[in-house]
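Dear Dr. L.,

I hope this message finds you well. Following up on our conversation about the binding site, I have prepared a predicted three-dimensional model of the protein together with S-adenosylmethionine. For your records, I am including the exact sequence and ligand specification that went into the calculation, followed by the structure tokens. Please feel free to forward this to your student if that is useful.
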Amino acid sequence: MKRFRYALDPLCVGACVAYAVCRWVIRPHWTGLFWHGYSTDCLFIPAALPLLLWVQRQLGLRSHDRYPDWPEIGINFAVWSVAAEGVAPFIFKTAVGDWMDVVAYASGALVAGVWWTFAGRTGFDRLAPHYGWMEKFLAGPRLQRCRTQWFDQLAGARRILIVGVGHAPELQALTVRCPAAHFTCVDASAGMLAAAEARVHRDGLDPTRLTFIHAALPAWQPPAGEYDAIVTNFFLDCFSGEELSAVVHRLATAAAPEARWVISDFTVPPRGLARLRARFVHALMYVFFRVVTGLRAARLTEPDPLLTAEGFTLTGRQTSEWGLLHADLWSRGPR
Ligand SMILES: C[S@@+](CC[C@H](N)C(=O)[O-])C[C@H]1O[C@@H](n2cnc3c(N)ncnc32)[C@H](O)[C@@H]1O
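The resulting structure of the complex is given below.
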């Protein structure tokens, strides 16, 4: 969890500076209703709420140091609006109630809420609430088709490891096609795992068939030789170089001697316009994930030689979207 720093929060510091500039630099030199009536009201929540929350924390009214969430912002906004615009005019002669002030507080609260929601999360936690609708909007059913392409081949599996499970878009299909299996689902993002567990509940899946583990590869050590199937959907593309080898090696040690490994991911076609297009799409994606999640990998690294070195053979590959996507089935040992 990222700790909120109250008065040292960058938004709070920026809003306090902006407040001082509005009040003592702009107002004496500029006329205009906004500067004289509402500018400082817009800054009220970003500047004052962190200080109010710090006081609440010292008084034991706040039990944690998380970033302010929407209910907390909403309650403080409502209490302040009623006190300043509804009650104060009855008590102080100079105070005047103005509903436009409430609109100004609300606009500051909205900006601060969006900022704190983003700043309070790290890595894929930032994307977790939005991953599902973004995928639907940008890719429709294409990624899901890749994820589920080889699931029939896992029908007899009893222990399946899904790594980088995210919000678990494949889990329902997998539980249906592998009726005897228990699933271990690993992800480094607590937000993604929370979304996955919510989906399990929503889809009415049997929770006794599932174990969720909050852990990061390659540090996480799975039990050796335990799983007869491994699923990594749009996960290996999060790594490159030594880290990718370490992740593949770690997962290969968890695989049983005759395990299968289902991989869906982005790929680069060998030549032509399709290759250029894929390079362009990947460049956009990696910049996006780097900015939003802090992803370290900067370009796609094909894991194929690493899988081969771990004793896996490519037994099926389906490419789609002009070679941009592939769904692979890798197998180890005699079949
Ligand atoms: C691009 S998302 C794909 C999620 C999901 N498999 C899907 O098909 O939509 C990558 C997922 O891998 C997880 N992840 C990234 N790095 C990880 C690591 N080192 N160990 C475990 N999970 C990781 C992220 O939290 C995220 O949920």
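In brief: The first strand starts at residue 159 and ends at 163.

With kind regards,
A. P.
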